[in-house]
């Protein structure tokens, strides 16, 4: 049988990392010891006290039944308490917090709540691919906001044409930013609130990396800015902060109507997060936070190694203040694809071509710091010896 795929599936480009995994597999099959600096997935384990909490919860039969879609009140309370402690943001756990099966799930589903076919969604370019894919699946049209080095990788809201802004229902933003490592100030967030208010746009801020920051910098939540809760919601999860990407526990918080609309949609699609996982995630949020600082110290050391190596080869990169990514221009004369190919060919190292994050990623590549220090050191040693010095 040959089944014809629906148009909405045909419209989706192949998931970026699926292509990269294929290239790695081909190299490995030829006996090359490939080191991947591609996917951003923490290599370090989930903290022990979190695992203990999950084990305890696993033994309680009450947790073997369907959870509630919105999340246990204890889980939503843990999220609200963490927001209060970390950002000074007050949230009503019953109305302003909804659980997500990882924030990616909520980001992908959000457009179904507010986007009709033909509506515009403002999407950063380069950006996390789920913003545009979720938009396309809902029948919406992404309008790409260029993130350029000249603007510190912040969108220029004044450059959005009036007629586009008027058709826009939703705007996605993400700071600290994947893939650029850029950060946003509260002043920028205040401009976003004013823009969203003027045009009636729901702001969806993806805050996945607020806890992965360096050199004393503490990234703000979008919800810290006055009026943010009127116009926006924030997506977050335990994934990056506590090395819990596999557990699938996230949340959306902020504007009560939007949080509840997402909850209503989800109640028709899924049945929430496994309760043992909710207990574990709550333990991560409520428990000791020293591990987060230790994690950041590890990423900082890796960041410095990569930046020093590239700068030694002729790059002139500044050290990002947050995220576990390095976003760097390709050498003159290269495209993102040709440079990624060269590095794989000569050094056996996988870097992500910037085009995987949108057309404006052309001319860049991304390195992820999520692999053990000796492997990262080996990758940098290969870059140092196999890649020619470049002049920018
Ligand atoms: C990793 C990441 C997330 C988190 O995804 P989860 O589904 O919560 O694991 C969200 N946004 C961006 C930009 C990310 O890189």
Describe the structure concisely.
With 392 residues, the chain is α/β, with parallel strands linked by helices. It has helices spanning 7-10, 16-29, 48-58, 73-87, 103-114, 130-137, 162-167, 186-199, 228-231, 256-267, 275-286, 290-312, 336-347, 373-386, and strands at 35-36, 97-100, 120-125, 141-146, 168-174, 202-206, 232-237, 250-254, 325-329, 349-350, 352-353, 364-368.
Write the layout of secondary structure elements.
Layout: H1 7-10, H2 16-29, E1 35-36, H3 48-58, H4 73-87, E2 97-100, H5 103-114, E3 120-125, H6 130-137, E4 141-146, H7 162-167, E5 168-174, H8 186-199, E6 202-206, H9 228-231, E7 232-237, E8 250-254, H10 256-267, H11 275-286, H12 290-312, E9 325-329, H13 336-347, E10 349-350, E11 352-353, E12 364-368, H14 373-386
Parallel strand pairs: 1-10, 3-4, 3-5, 5-6, 6-7
Antiparallel strand pairs: 2-8, 7-8, 9-12, 11-12
Helix pairs in contact: 3-11, 4-11, 5-6, 5-10, 12-14
The site of pyridoxal-5'-phosphate has 14 residues, from helix 5.
Could you characterize the architecture of this molecule?
α3 packs antiparallel against α11 and α5 packs across α10. The strands form three sheets. Strands 2-8-7-6-5-3-4 form a seven-stranded mixed β-sheet, sandwiched between helices. By secondary structure, it is of the alpha/beta class. The protein has 14 helices and twelve strands. The model has no long low-confidence stretch (mean pLDDT 96). It is 41% helix and 14% strand. It folds into two domains: 7-45 and 290-386, Aspartate Aminotransferase, domain 1 (Alpha-Beta Complex), CATH 3.90.1150.10; 48-286, Aspartate Aminotransferase, domain 2 (3-Layer(aba) Sandwich), CATH 3.40.640.10. It has helices at 7-10, 16-29, 48-58, 73-87, 103-114, 130-137, 162-167, 186-199, 228-231, 256-267, 275-286, 290-312, 336-347, 373-386, and strands at 35-36, 97-100, 120-125, 141-146, 168-174, 202-206, 232-237, 250-254, 325-329, 349-350, 352-353, 364-368. The structure holds pyridoxal-5'-phosphate (PLP). Pyridoxal-5'-phosphate binds at residues 40, 102-104, 128, 174, 178, 206, 208, 237, 239-240, 245, 250.
